[in-house]
Amino acid sequence: MTRSDTIISKMEHVEESLKDTLYRVEVIERKLKTKLLNAKDREKLEGELEEVKKVLRRNEKELQSLRKENSKSFMITACLVFVCFLFYGIYLMIFKKI
After folding, report:
1. Do 49 and 92 reside in the same domain of the chain?
2. Sign of the four-CA dihedral 90, 92, 94, 98
3. In angstroms, what CA-CA distances link 73 with 13, 66, 70, 76, 96?
4. Structurally, how many domains does the chain consist of?
5. Rg from Cα positions in the chain
6. What membrane topology is annotated for this entry (predicted)?
7. pTM (global) more than 0.85
C-alpha cells in the first residue's frame, strides 16, 4: 500500500482479503470432510488450513486497528468542528451584541 492510501481504502482492502480468506477456509474445511483423502493429502490440507487461519487472524487484528484509527480521526474532526462553532459563537457574542 502506498502512503497516500486513506484509512477507508485500507479497511476495504483488508475486508476484501478477509472475505477471500474466509472463503478459502470454507473450501479447505469442505475438502477435509470428504472421506476420499489419503493421509498425506489430509495433512497437507490441515497445514494449509492452519496457515490460512493465521492470515485470517492477522487480517482481523489489522482491521480492528484500522477501525480504531478511523474512530480517532473522526473524534478529532468532531472536536475541531465543535471548537470552530464555539469560537464563532463567542465572536457573535462579543462583536454582534447578541
Report:
1. yes
2. negative
3. 19, 11, 5, 5, 34
4. 2
5. 25
6. Single-pass membrane protein
7. no
Residue spans of alpha helices (H) in the chain: 7-33, 39-95
Q: Output the nine-digit C-alpha cell for 9.
A: 481504502
Query: Do 45 and 88 lie in a common domain?
Result: yes
Asked whether residue 86 falls in the same domain as residue 53, the answer is yes
DSSP state of 96: S
pLDDT digit string (tens) for 40-94? 988 998 999 999 999 999 999 999 999 999 999 999 999 999 999 999 999 998 8
Quick one: 63 and 22 in the same domain? no
Q: Which residue has the cell 470454507?
A: 26
Length of the chain: 98
Neighbours of 16 (CB within 10 A): 11
